[in-house]
């Protein structure tokens, strides 16, 4: 049973001296929630739930619909997925990264219109779109894919990406959250990942903020670029000088964060919850 609890705990104090707002709500009872996306046109939240092993194609994954207040609208809006992770809206289609496939899901019905299988892909992870094109990361192959006009093609493969996870189109560049180099069996790394920038014109890779951690989600609220560290549960704000300041500490498993306006959506993958919180 999926429950929602209203939490009125004390606000978290940031290491920058600011105060992170109290939680709006926490929705719980999900099985491995990985990514949350606010569908502004339909005033709802879409949540991907892996349901089981994030690396296994078992047909158990699903998408859940929630209201802006955190109430579950439809616990089985889209079913039959494997291990769905990142999502992005492009027109009337929801794109969902699912291991070796990219799903096109009808936003009106939740039905899968098409699943594009890519044998070269191993662990498709996050998706970002500007409304015309989309980019998808592959955590295990140091690769980025591009989706446009229904075609899904390999765009960049480079070891400098160091297990790319979160992706975010931002002012003419593609921000990429590196998980880090030297991936271990427990998904920790020998070296922490950095926030990277890839030029959309030249595909040149540069470092925005080095050595943050195992970056999962990336979003922007006004001038603040925010990233999540899945392993530690840290939430970081990236300054214009490339310095990452930790603004809040959550439990391990802070996954693919997103935002709408000043509201953050924080999927807690290991806790089975989705937190809504205003920023700052």
From TrEMBL:
UniProt signal peptide: 1-21
Superkingdom field: Bacteria
Keywords carried by this UniProt record: Signal
InterPro entries: 6-blade_b-propeller_TolB-like (IPR011042)
Protein name according to UniProt: ATP/GTP-binding protein
Gene source species: Sulfitobacter porphyrae
Taxonomic classification: Bacteria, Pseudomonadati, Pseudomonadota, Alphaproteobacteria, Rhodobacterales
């Amino acid at each position: 049973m999926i429950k929602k609890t209203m939490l009125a705990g004390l606000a978290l104090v940031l290491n920058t001296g600011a105060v992170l707002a109290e939680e709006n709500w926490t929705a719980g009872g999900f099985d491995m929630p990985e990514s949350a996306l606010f569908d502004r046109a339909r005033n709802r939240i879409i949540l991907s739930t892996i349901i089981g092993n994030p690396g296994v194609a078992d047909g158990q994954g699903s998408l859940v619909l929630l209201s802006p207040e955190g109430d579950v609208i439809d616990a089985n809006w889209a079913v039959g997925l494997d291990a769905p992770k990142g999502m992005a809206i492009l027109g009337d289609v929801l794109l969902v990264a699912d291991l070796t496939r990219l799903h096109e899901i009808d936003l009106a019905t939740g039905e899968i219109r098409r699943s594009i299988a890519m044998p070269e892909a191993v662990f498709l992870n996050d998706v970002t779109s500007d409304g015309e094109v989309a980019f998808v990361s592959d955590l295990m192959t140091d690769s980025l894919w591009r989706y446009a006009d229904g075609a899904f093609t390999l765009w960049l493969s480079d070891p400098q990406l160091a297990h790319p996870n979160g992706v975010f189109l931002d002012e003419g560049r593609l921000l990429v959250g590196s998980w880090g180099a030297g991936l271990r069996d427990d998904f920790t790394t020998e070296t922490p990942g950095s926030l990277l920038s890839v030029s959309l014109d030249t595909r040149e890779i540069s470092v925005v903020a080095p050595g943050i951690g195992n970056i999962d989600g990336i979003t922007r609220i006004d001038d603040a670029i925010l990233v999540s560290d899945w392993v530690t549960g840290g939430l970081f704000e990236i300054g214009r000088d490339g310095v990452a300041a930790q603004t809040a500490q959550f439990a391990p498993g802070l996954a693919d964060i997103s935002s709408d306006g000043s509201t953050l959506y924080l999927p807690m993958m290991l806790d089975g919850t989705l937190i809504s919180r205003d920023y700052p």
